[in-house]
Amino acid sequence: MTKPSAFVSHGIVHAQRALAALAAMTNAHLNPTTLKRTLAQRARAELARLEIIIRRLLVLMALGLVLPPVPVRAFSVHPSGTGRVETKASTGLTGLSPRVLGPDMDRDGFAISTRACGPVQAAPILARLAALQELLAAPEAHARRLARTLERQRKAGEAAPVALPMTRTHRMPPELGAIATALPELLRAAFKSWESSG
Fold first, then answer.
1. Distance of CA 111 to the CA centre of its chain
2. Considering the chain, what percentage of its residues have pLDDT values greater than 90?
3. Tens digit of each residue's pLDDT (9 = 90 or more) over 22-42
4. pLDDT for 45-62, tens place per residue?
5. What is the rounded CA–CA span in Å between residue 1 and residue 68?
6. CB 126 within 8 A of CB 28
7. Which residues pair with 34 in a beta bridge?
8. Cα separation, 24 vs 28, whole angstroms
9. H helices of 107-158, where?
10. How far apart, in whole angstroms, are the C-alpha atoms of residue 146 and residue 153?
11. Measured distance CA(104)–CA(121) in Å, rounded
């Protein structure tokens, strides 16, 4: 297995710093039960951007790994007769914990437009923050699982994933914004051999 590239390592460091800043902004160490609505909206927007960056860094790390062959195991048929059993690894691409959505959040983690006012529950935001911090504490393990998943998808003839340019990178710290801007092109280059390999 190869080491992550300098770019990926640099990106992970800056993502960790951004998560630490977000934890300080929300007083996560105090485990608050509620957050001011404007603070919660800002935190959700930051988390959504960081989740995209972290997923892309993990994919880039996974594409740079050289993994040993998987040992061949005896094929077993599921009792239902379906053959293949969906596992946690096969149903999720990135290994990120599922988002914990609150009653005032949509599927993308943004606030649903309502006329409600006052504080909102902090637990969903803190759970997403903790999941990302846990992920970046051991990114290599997640990247290895992701590399296996990507390899299965490639061999199955699926199209290579596409990373669209991120918007509003000017609102991020300069280093993180530069990383977010560079990631789509780096991923496009890393996926060039997807159809020709294997």
1. 20
2. 55
3. 999 999 999 999 999 999 999
4. 999 999 999 999 999 999
5. 8
6. yes
7. 121
8. 6
9. 123-137, 139-155
10. 10
11. 9
Q: Within a 13 Å sphere around the CA of 112, how many CA atoms are in the beta-carbon half?
A: 10
The two structure tokens encoding residue 118: 């006052």
> Residue 29: CB partners within 8 Å, gap ≥ 6?
23
pLDDT at 89: 35
- Token pair for 81: 């007769």
- Tell me the two tokens of residue 105: 């959040």
At residue 18, φ and ψ (nearest 5 deg) are -65, -40
Question: Would you tell me how many other CB atoms lie within 10 Å of the CB of residue 32?
Answer: 17
Residue 28: which of 173, 130, 131 has the closest Cα? 130
CA distance to 66, 92, 147, per residue, from 69 (Å): 9, 21, 12
User: How far is 192 from 190, CA to CA, in rounded Å?
Assistant: 6
CA atoms within 13 A on the CB side of 113: 0
C-beta separation of 67 from 147 below 8 A: yes
DSSP state of 178: H
Tokens of 49: 């951007």
